[in-house]
User: Fold this.
Amino acid sequence: MAQTYQVVVTPQAEESLDAIVGYLLETASDAVAERVRAGIIEEIRGLSNMPQRHGLLQGVDNLLITYRRALKWSYRIIFTVEEEDFLVLVIEIDHGKRNPEELKNVLL
Assistant:
């Protein structure tokens, strides 16, 4: 049976999710904002099982940290996996079209 990982969401990632939901409340509807929030949270919870199934994050080079990304609609959940501790650390949640240079400022 596969090992279950503990999933920890950083304050930065929580703030990003709040910003996404806030934007959708202003530009779409309460229903859309809630559906996106719930979908992203569901995807994050799913990282507790086989987080390595998700692809590597491209465009961010760091020799010490391997970043992965899970996709939910047009949003990326960016995380690392600490194998020895069976820990997934969610670092950022963003729109897939975000400028990679901005993302580097958050991750590096």
The mean pLDDT is 93. The radius of gyration is 14 Å. Residues 75 and 95 are 4 Å apart (CA to CA). The chain has three helices and four strands.
